Amino acid sequence: MKKQLIFCYCLLTALPLFAQKSEVKTLSFDSAAFAAIRKQLNSLDSKPFEKLTYNTTGTVLPYRLLAPKEIKSGTKYPLIIALHNSSRLGTDNENQLEPLTRTWLTAEMRAKFPAFVLAPQFETRPTQYAFNETYQVMTATPQKNLQALLQLIVEMSNNPQVDPKRIYLIGYSMGGSTVQHLLSQKPTLFAAAIAVAGVPDFSNLANIKTKPIWLIHGKQDDENPFSGSQKLFEQLKGNAKARFTIYENLNHNTITYPLLTTDELAKWLFKWKLTTSN
Question: What global pTM score does this model have?
Fold first, then answer.
């Protein structure tokens, strides 16, 4: 009996190690500090993000590409796909460099996390939203223009300087929804994904249930409702690599406030690598 009790205790204490990670945070929001951080990031010289275009059948996709500051011979680097929100739609190949994407330009980030950062710009929305009766939340549906980006990523994964086992997705708002589309459509291509204030894609749950996914959402978000990320996290039950960070007092427009001055997102992405199990 004593041995059985010891076994049960060990099992119970071990369970959290294999469980999903959910965390609730409340922070003091400072609008002046938020404005100052965004101004500082927007003032960074964006020239290191090379201006390029990708041409495929019937589609021209503008994109920017940031290379590691120093490329060492024989070294392969991660490829980060940074996806913009809907206010950045267009063709100027400038506006997609929103503050969250510009964090990769800082000297500290470039030194600590050398990587290629690809920032595409969509002319029209790559995702559309509608209420889903089955899940009782707003859900996202991918659009055809997403295929050009997928083709570009596949081509870049064959670059000898890119590590095909370390391709990461990160995006805010519409970009967070697009992250989920890309992961759902090509789960074996991406090592990890971060979706900030996105609308969920439930289309391929069976094949993303073992993927490292970090959902970040403000509970006060009434634009891309918090309930969507909450429902997706519930559907990922059993995925020990799934993480959900909830900011109690932040909304859709303020959710990036705690994300612009931390390297925690990069740290989390860089710890994952494609294996046969994911």
Answer: 0.92
